[in-house]
Amino acid sequence: MARSIKELMSTDCVTATLLDNVYELAVLMRDHDIGFVPIVDGKKLIGIVTDRDLVIRGYAAKHPGSTAVSEVMSSDIKAIDADTSVDEAAMMMSRNQIRRLPVVENGNLVGIVSIGDLAVRDKFADEAGEALSGISRQDADDTQQHAYH
């Protein structure tokens, strides 16, 4: 039987709430050397903010550092259950072109799994490689499309 994400996920998640602002998220990302912050209400996962979200929806949209998290967060969350298999998680990452997946139980954030988590385990190197390959192909396609438009 395939191993579950529960065995690989990080459980020491840095999170923020709707009470935080864009500046506070940037500081969290800097201080913890991360580019992804789940937004929670208590323990319930309600959104995600990436470093790209801060740039595109925040600073490039001329929003000041005091702008509310809700202005830059993605609420269309791709998440998985802790019992999801590594294969399923890798396929989901590839299909959705994402490098990190929140892990939830009953809507509550319990962890995060990343491409790196898959790659550091020799047994899962193929799954990580396939997911990253799918993501990289999409990134290259996007870059080429932007170059011509």
Strand content: 15-25%
The overall pLDDT, averaged over residues, is 83
Uncertain parts: 142-149
CATH superfamily: CBS-domain
What topology, given as strand order, has the largest sheet?
A: 3-4-5
CATH architecture: Roll
Radius of gyration using CA atoms only: 16 Å
What is the N-to-C succession of helices and strands?
HEEHEHEEHH
Instruction: Please report the distance between the alpha carbons of the first and last residues.
Output: 46 Å
| Total strand segments | 5
Integer tally of domains: 1
- The quaternary organization reads as single chain
Structural class: alpha+beta
| CATH topology grouping | CBS-domain
The amount of helix comes to 40-55%
Map the helices and strands:
Blueprint lengths: L21 H11 L3 E6 L2 E7 H9 L20 E2 L4 H11 L3 E6 L2 E7 H5 L5 H24 L1
Parallel strand pairs: 3-4
Antiparallel strand pairs: 1-2, 4-5
Helix pairs in contact: 3-5
Give your account of this protein's structure.
There is one protein chain. The protein is of the alpha+beta class and 149 residues long. The protein has a single domain, classed as CBS-domain (Roll). Helices cover 40% and strands 19% of the residues. The chain contains five helices and five strands, in the order αββαβαββαα. It has helices at residues 22-32, 51-59, 86-96, 115-119, 125-148; strands at residues 36-41, 44-50, 80-81, 100-105, 108-114. It has a three-stranded mixed sheet. A two-stranded antiparallel ribbon has the order 1-2. Strand 1 and strand 2 (44-50) form a beta hairpin. It is globular and about 45 Å long. The termini are far apart. Mean pLDDT is 83; it is low at 142-149. Residues 9-65, 73-130 form the CBS domain. It comes from Paenibacillus lycopersici. This is CBS domain-containing protein. Pfam families: CBS.
